[in-house]
TrEMBL record:
Heme as UniProt keyword: yes
Name of the protein: Cytochrome P450
InterPro entries per the UniProt record, alphabetical: Cyt_P450, Cyt_P450_CS, Cyt_P450_E_grp-I, Cyt_P450_sf, Cytochrome_P450_fung
Similarity comment: family membership: Belongs to the cytochrome P450 family.
Annotated TM spans: 12-30
Classification via PANTHER family: P450, PUTATIVE (EUROFUNG)-RELATED, P450, PUTATIVE (EUROFUNG)-RELATED-RELATED
Domain of life: Eukaryota
Keywords: Heme, Iron, Membrane, Metal-binding, Monooxygenase, Oxidoreductase, Transmembrane, Transmembrane helix
Amino acid sequence: MVLITLLFDVRIVFAAIASVIAAYASWLVVQDVRVKKKYRLPPQVPGPPLIGNIFQMPKTDHGPYLQKLGRQYGEMFTLKFGSTYWVVLNSRRVAHELLEKRAAIYSSRQNLPMAHRIVSGEKRILLMPYGDAWRRQRKMMHKVLNSSQQGIYKPFQDLESKALMYQLLVQPETWYLWLGRFSNSVIMSVIFGRRTHPGDVNLSAVYSAQEEFVPYMMPGASIIDAFPILEKASFLKSFQPWRRKGDDLYRRTKKAFLKLIEELESRINAGTQRPCFMTELIASNDEEKFTREEIAFIAGTLIEAGTDTTRTSMLSLIAGTAMYPEWVERARKELDAVCGPNAERLPTFEDMNKLPMIKAAVKESVRWRPTNAQTGIPHALTEDDEFEGYRFPAGTVVTWNNWGISLDSNEYDEAERFSPDRFLDEDLDKVAKGHLGFGAGRRLCVGYNVAASNLLIVIARLVYCFDIEQDPSEPVKVDKPLPFSAEVEPYKVFIKPRSDAHRRLIMEECQTAAKIDEQ
Ligand code: HEM
């Protein structure tokens, strides 16, 4: 009797699922017909009906894939993931026209029920739709990360870049791990006012949660992103394997972020906390009244957004310099004129106005091979819009073909070359201008000032003190984005001090900075 009832229940559940799927499939067909009738989208990459291009998107190297499509389809093209249309912008011109000039309606984010609502509890700014919750966080982040706050960050950047020089000198064979350590520690210092060790347990928990989270932002990563109706099917919750996984990841992420807040509070109570982003946030929280969990996600998201992006931009710099060293000669002329030709002293932030090539190299490092946001970080349109004969529906996801545009010879002379000279123009001091590495419009990277000064001090010191060379038997290859993992040697290079004098300078000025426990 029990068995019969059970079988009957199972049949009802399957029938319910089948009806939901059938109803949804019919709705998709109606939607498609409606969109085709009322709107006009750029050329669409063909794909099977209903699901569209979901299964055509490769699991990795999305940048080169969209680059290939861009060459085929021109300045704009359309992809379809389930019920969502994506318009891919394939030139700086159209990115500027839409994401910047029409930012008032092109500044939302795509509806990602899995990544945003389930895995992030709607608290990661990166995924928030354009609206009040986003505006509150963004305003506060901007207040604390803008260039007038540099006095708080520069001492950390100075210290960590010295530690990096010393580590590259004494253990050059693990150079890529030192870049990872620098990025972790400098961002933790800027946000939490404390340095980090490799293998820091509390931070590892943050990074491993991030590693699991990032793939959920990719198109087609979760079935409910392509078919958001499935999220609403709450009566089937226990049959949704994605929900159990997502809820568990959210719980672990929250725990990892809150742990960092607990540590911060202990340091504040012990009177050992240094001024940083979090002390500024806490001091100004009377006005905004962010909850403890919101504060934890603000800080955690900044750590996530700032760390790997900094590391991979430095990987680009080193690969580009090893492959195209011509610019180094000229940069060194500037550096030697300021710091002396015989390693008299290290370059500092105060020297930067006399080092235009270094400033240009910061922009080139962000343009040249954009690994982290290779297909942009998609924006979403909040109202119907018309542009150059096309008509886009509200809700269209609009992204820029970051990898493709960066490597397009119509956009940049000899785009394949690492050549900072291209940025020696009147916009040299506008770090986010002339490339799309920091995004565009109102969602432009909120941490770009911090990012640029991290790179500035590292590049100046690295180029002044070290020669960077390829291994002739294993040339650097950059036809694909660099590996994401910080533990993997992405390519082979030799990093050697320029001279004995430079070696001595690093020993004298940087050794103490590398003693992390004592700072
Ligand atoms: C070289 C390093 C960096 C690169 C290349 C980079 C790149 C980007 C890009 C492409 C976006 C998306 C922009 C858009 O949607 O138009 C973004 C957003 C963001 N970045 Fe960065 N970033 C870097 C460093 C940082 C740092 C150091 C921080 C913080 C300390 C940070 C915090 C953020 C945040 C919070 C967002 C989300 C903004 C929003 O959605 O409103 N980033 N970044």
